[in-house]
Amino acid sequence: MRTQVGIIGSGPAGLLLSQLLHLQGIDTVILERQSREHVQGRIRAGVLEMGTVQMLRDAQVHERMEREGIIHEGIGLAFAGRTERIDFAKHTGGGTVMIYGQTEVTRDLIEARLAAGGILKYECPAVAVEDYDTNQPRIIYEEDGQRKELVCDFVAGCDGYHGVSRQSVPQDKLTVYEKIYPFGWLGILSDVPPIDKELIYANHERGFALCSMRSHTRSRYYVQCGLDDRVENWTDDAFWDELRRRLPERVADNLVTGPRLEMSIAPLRSFVAEPMRFGNLFLAGDAAHIVPPTGAKGLNLAASDIFYLSRALIAYYGEKRTDLLDRYSETALRRVWKAIRFSWWFTSMTHRFDDDPINRRLQIAELDYITGSEAGQTTMAENYIGLPFETFE
Ligand code: APR
Ligand code: PHB
């Protein structure tokens, strides 16, 4: 089989790239290891930056998002028994975020690709990328137990942290930066109304907690847990009790509890692999970088990589230009590192790391400063709503 851009992975990065290229008449094939049901069933974060929202509009997959998504103009930061609001709109000249689950974004993109006759091959794991240093890179993949080949002009490695793209290049050509945090997040999804109109991030001596939502009737909550903790250790009641204890009393009083639709534990990691280009193989999204979920930057960073990569490929096919392809890695990485920094900082300020009392007092002082100063509120707001994309044309 042959295509112009071979895409490994049908997460948000691969799907968005495929859709944006399709709208410019560029052919793609997506190879995905899992089944469509598996991909659509994964529960992930649910906060879209304005830049991501605009990209979904550009990709013409915005209708359901505009209808069902909820615009938020701020978040709450809870600490030392009180809750302070960060007003995004006020500190960024009208900036907002959109509450709309990654699960829904993925579904909308899959439906749009299929409706346009796009080729999405599920249960077709890529096993290697070969000849990426030539102008005919090939993806070796399996279909029904048989080994097959997809010959391409370019390969987009959008296959997540555990994918095969990053593994297909000589490891001495990669520089890897990594930080593993000594805790995880235990999350619950439940059909109960959210505790508040906006998200609340809570620093508490028992550990971090986050009150999030998917809609006016569906809530997503998290509590920081140990790395060795297991979902089997938690009943629904135990989760709700722990969450309540980590919130200021006035907030906790509004908590409505219900049975879980899902409960899971996620570890926290910061990770960057540089560069994001090897010849005609381009890495994007989780294949190249991971952020801890504090601040919900994972999906948004995948979208910003695709902002640059789609433009570079469109300039190549439309105008035979290679300069944007040459600048992709350095340009994408500048924004990646700023989000890596923000997610690390937000995590550091809100989670319990150890029992040393000075660290907690420093966190409280920092939260007090950030929420009390105009400069501090602006820092939080402009990073949370998403830093601007660079001009790339
Ligand atoms: N062959 C084909 N597909 C693969 C392979 C492989 N060898 N390895 C992994 N995949 C698929 C995975 O099954 C997954 O569907 O690649 C896809 C990668 O998608 P995501 O993990 O969603 O990554 P990405 O598109 O970069 O989106 C980043 O999504 O995963 C979240 O937390 C992440 O929010 C972030 C965002
Ligand atoms: C979520 O809704 O799952 C979510 C929201 C905000 C975050 C992380 C996760 O920072």
Arrangement of strands in the largest sheet? 6-5-14-15-16-13-17-20
State the low-pLDDT regions, or none: none
Count of helix runs: 12
Largest sheet: 8 strands, mixed
Total number of β-strand segments? Answer: 20
Can you give the mean pLDDT? 97
CA-CA gap between termini: 31 Å
Bound chemical compounds: adenosine-5-diphosphoribose, P-hydroxybenzoic acid
Which range does the strand content fall in?
A: 25-35%
Estimate the global geometry from the Cα principal axes. globular
- Please tell me how large the radius of gyration is: 21 Å
Task: Characterise this structure.
- With 393 residues, the protein is an alpha+beta fold.
- The strands form 4 sheets. Strands 6-5-14-15-16-13-17-20 form an 8-stranded mixed sheet, with helices on both faces. Strands 8-2-1-12-19-18 form a 6-stranded mixed sheet. A 3-stranded antiparallel sheet has the order 3-7-4.
- A hairpin with a 6-residue loop joins strand 14 and strand 15 (209-213).
- The protein is built from 12 helices and 20 strands.
- The structure holds adenosine-5-diphosphoribose and P-hydroxybenzoic acid (PHB).
- Residues 8-14, 31-34, 39, 44-45, 102, 125-126, 158-160, 162-164, 285-286, 298-299, 302 line the site of adenosine-5-diphosphoribose.
